[in-house]
Amino acid sequence: MHVQFGAPAFPRRRNPRGLGPAALGALLSVGLASFGVSALAPRAAEAQSGATFTSTANPGGGEIIAGTLGTSSLPAATAALLRRVHASLGGRPTIVQVARNARDHSLALLFTATRGGTPYTGIALVTAAPGAQAGGAALYDTRARFRTTVGPMMRRLNAMTSPSAATSHAATKLAPAEPLVTHEFRDGTGSIGVPADWKLEVYGGGSAMASGPTGEIVAYNMAWSAMDMSNPRAQFFMRSQPPQMRRDFLSRVALLPYTSDPVQAWLTVPNQLAKQRGGFQPRYDVKRATRNGNMADIVAIVEGKKQAHILAHALVLPPNPNGQWTLTNTFVYVPDSEIARQGATASAVLNSVRINFGAVAAQGAAIRQMFQKNFETMIANDRAQDAAREQRGNEAMAADRAAQEGMHKQAVAMENYSLDRAVVVDSRTGAHSTIGSGFADTLVQNNPNYQKVPTQQLLRGVDY
Question: Which CATH number fits domain 181-355: 1.10.238, 3.40.1000, 3.30.559, 2.60.40?
Answer without folding.
Answer: 3.40.1000
